[in-house]
Amino acid sequence: MPAYLDLLDLLFPKSCPLCGRIISHDQVICYKCKMEIPPMIMDQNLKGRWNFDKFFYFAIYEGKIKEMIRSYKYGGAISLYKYFVDIFDELFDYFPPPSDSVITTVPITFNSFKNKGFDHMKKIGRSFSKKRGIQFLDLIEVVKQKKQQVNSTFEERKELVKGKYRVRIEELYRTNGKIVILDDVFTTGATVNECARILKDGGAQSLYVYTIAKTKLGEIYELK
Ligand SMILES: [Zn+2]
């Protein structure tokens, strides 16, 4: 560890955003919290007609990882993005996307941006793109703001997200059609499926989806 980090630790102790334990400045969360996140690192066989070709996730959305994602999105623990960058890094090591893919993320609504002050996935996506040396492009934008519904089924969500997003076609033309979509949680999959649909309609050839977590009930074969 560089000496300046030791000095920083002494002068400005940093604490784990999840449990408050003292950590060093090169850590994002403490070891104990880290140990509580069992990585699954799964590639999910696709059943049914999805608009993307492959889907990978790091963990089941529960316990510590759920707490982390919520603290990051709503609790102001923005430094956690570094940890999520490492998670995607690990996922890519196991399941690399086709070469020359570009990275994009599912955008948040304007209201959500106003509340949070940042686009939580874009922050991760841009930083990850730098780390990995893969181009990041804003390929999708929100055009219609619809009420979020919690605990809705795939079909209900599918209706909700229809027409919500638009492809920035001039950006899509800068790619060779191989796209990676990063998102935080795979619940019913309706949102990311809609994003994949409009990208395919715009001419995308290959679509890989990577998420930090998948809910237990988020069954990928729900879609017929
Ligand atoms: Zn901790």
Task: Summarize the SSE layout with pairings.
Blueprint: H1 3-11, E1 14-15, E2 22-23, H2 31-35, E3 42-44, E4 54-60, H3 63-74, H4 81-94, E5 102-105, H5 110-116, H6 120-132, E6 140-142, H7 154-161, E7 165-167, H8 169-172, E8 178-186, H9 190-201, E9 206-214
Parallel strand pairs: 4-9, 5-8, 8-9
Antiparallel strand pairs: 1-2, 3-4, 6-7
Helix pairs in contact: 4-6
Question: Can you walk me through this structure?
Answer:
With 224 residues, the chain is α/β, with parallel strands linked by helices. The chain has two domains: 1-36, no CATH class; 38-222, Rossmann fold. 38% of the residues lie in helices and 19% in strands. The chain is built from nine helices and nine strands. The strands form three sheets. It has a five-stranded mixed beta sheet. Strands 1-2 form a two-stranded antiparallel ribbon. Strand 1 and strand 2 (22-23) form a beta hairpin. It is globular. The N and C termini lie far apart (52 Å). The mean pLDDT is 86. Zinc ion binds next to helix 2.
Summarize this entry quickly:
The chain has 224 residues and is an alpha/beta fold. The chain has nine helices and nine strands.
Keywords summarizing the entry:
single chain, 224 residues, alpha/beta, Rossmann fold, 2 domains, 9 strands, binds zinc ion
Strand content: 15-25%
Strand order of the largest sheet: 3-4-9-8-5
How far is the N terminus from the C terminus?
52 Å
- Under CATH at level 1, the class of the largest domain stands as Alpha Beta
**CATH topology heading of the largest domain:** Rossmann fold
Mean pLDDT: 86
The count of helical stretches stands at 9
Bound chemical compounds: zinc ion
The total of beta strands comes to 9
Structural class: alpha/beta
Biggest sheet descriptor: 5 strands, mixed
Instruction: Please give the CATH architecture of the largest domain.
Output: 3-Layer(aba) Sandwich
Uncertain runs are: none
Which term fits the overall shape?
A: globular
Q: What is the helix content?
A: 25-40%
